[in-house]
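User: Last request for today: this protein with adenosine-5'-triphosphate, please.
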Amino acid sequence: MAERIIGLENASRTLAASVRVLHKVELELRAGESLAIVGRSGSGKSTLLSCLGLLAPFDRGTSYHLDDTEVMRLSESAAARLRATSIGFVLQNSGLVAHLSALENVELPLMHSSRDGFRGIRRRALEQLDQLGIGHLARRRPVQVSGGERQRIAIARALVIGPRLILADEPTGALDEQTGALVLDLMLDLVHRTNAAMIVVTHDSEVASRADRTLHVSDGHLHEPERRTR
Ligand SMILES: Nc1ncnc2c1ncn2[C@@H]1O[C@H](COP(=O)(O)OP(=O)(O)OP(=O)(O)O)[C@@H](O)[C@H]1O
Ligand SMILES: [Mg+2]
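Assistant: Here's the final one, the structure of the complex with adenosine-5'-triphosphate:
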């Protein structure tokens, strides 16, 4: 069996107002695997992704292994380092830096993780934009492109580090069917080529059906999949 990338046990997330969004969630994800997460609006999908992406903490008592690292034991700075080098996050609201160009936004994560010099970083960022069909927009700022183009810049920024784990919150929500399919192909191809793992939150059954399996979030729980063969 492929090596495990995510091992999550007894995971809960309680917000300040003691609203329990996630309760005793278990999840295992292996190298090369893609998972779709579906569920009603407000059910906790983005919350789960944020915690898996080390943008927010799970409650104490949670065990979260990313590869062999117990993430819950990491200091804040060690967690930030792990996030920068291993996790490609496509946020639901693109999260691009408004005053930087598309190219600079995609270069940003490489500044933390790459040993390439400036030229190497620029080349990789440009290649990534090209792959997503938006190389010609490299100089534009996020407000100067369309919603779907902005979404693709955010995807380029997530993929450019060659992440171990890709977390994508509605990555194709603003894209037409054809572009969405292309972008998803690219992400799945990266997962298989680099033996990474991917979790996609989606309301689109077409997108969900492309993943190896699907889980449902409701009442704070992740429901067991009907497992499909590839
Ligand atoms: N900072 C916060 N304070 C209080 N409640 C919050 C906070 N952030 C999210 N919530 C609540 O937590 C629940 C889960 O939110 P979450 O964003 O994870 O939902 P979601 O499944 O991603 O929904 P959608 O499909 O609409 O994106 C919601 O009821 C939301 O109102
Ligand atoms: Mg959400």
